[in-house]
Amino acid sequence: MKKKKTLIKVARIDKIFQSEEIFKDLIFTVPEHTFLAVLGSSGTGKSTLLNILQGLDQPTHGSVEYYMPKSEIQFVFQDYTLFPWLTCLENLVEPLMLIKNLPKPAAEKKARVLLSEVGLKKKYDLFPHELSGGMKQRVAIARALAMEPKILLMDEPFGALDAHIKQELHELVLKLFDKYKMSIVFVTHDVDEAIMLADRVYTLNPSIANFHIPLTVDFQRPRSRDLWYSEKFQSYKAQIIKNYKQ
Question: What is the pLDDT along the chain (246 residues), one digit of tens a residue?
């Protein structure tokens, strides 16, 4: 199997905020077309790590090396960050025109294709306040895809959604991951979610303020919900929960 190219290399980074050590001595890489989950409870530095990866924040010590343009990193947040005065379609068209320099007809065509791909074919002209939480997150994902990212950073994007909608969005993200061959760094506090989605699961444990050696999840893709009931899935879950307790 061909070795995957490294897109980001994190070399022994520490983060200290107001004299408090958030995390220490983190080492990991983001390879091309790899799904990484960062798992941990509140306050362990998961969101801070994503901010550092995108360059919105800097580590106190250590370095982050990029082997790709930072402009090819996109962020999907839990709170959607849509422009409330724009329709679903316009939330994609505006950045396509401003950032990708597409003429309006081409931007609208691409926006319609992406919104259809995330299941919003008949919602083009609705405003964010007219959408459910799951629909808003679909728009946010489509907008990120419009920028053609090599890496998608996702900060607990489904944490506020109910179980049924979350399952639908898991299936959507897995489909898009396979189609677009991007890498995803997905922050969550949900152990089942991390195992279901990721190739590697990193655990941030506040008691030691550091990553554990990542758990490699070797389920084949495409994945289905049936994996939840397998013995291997439960074994992975037991290993991760053990890390929490160390």
Answer: 678 999 999 999 988 888 888 888 889 999 999 999 999 877 778 889 999 999 999 999 999 999 999 999 999 988 878 999 999 999 999 999 999 999 999 999 999 999 999 999 989 999 999 999 999 999 999 999 999 999 999 999 998 889 899 999 999 999 999 999 999 999 998 999 999 999 999 988 766 555 767 899 999 888 888 888 899 999 999 988 887 655
Other CB atoms within a 10 A radius of the CB of residue 170 amount to 17
Examine residue 128 and say whether the peptide bond preceding it is cis (omega within 30 degrees of 0): no
Identify whether the C-beta of residue 185 lies closer than 8 Å to the C-beta of residue 28: no
Q: Is residue 75 within 8 Å of residue 54, measured between CB atoms?
A: yes
Q: Are strands 6-17 and 73-76 parallel, antiparallel or unpaired?
A: unpaired
158 touches 137 (CB < 8 A): yes
> How far is it, in rounded angstroms, from Cα 104 to Cα 48?
36
CB-based burial label for 121 (10 Å; 0-12, 13-18, 19+): exposed
Q: What is the pTM of this model?
A: 0.94
Q: Which residue has the tokens 């061959």?
A: 181
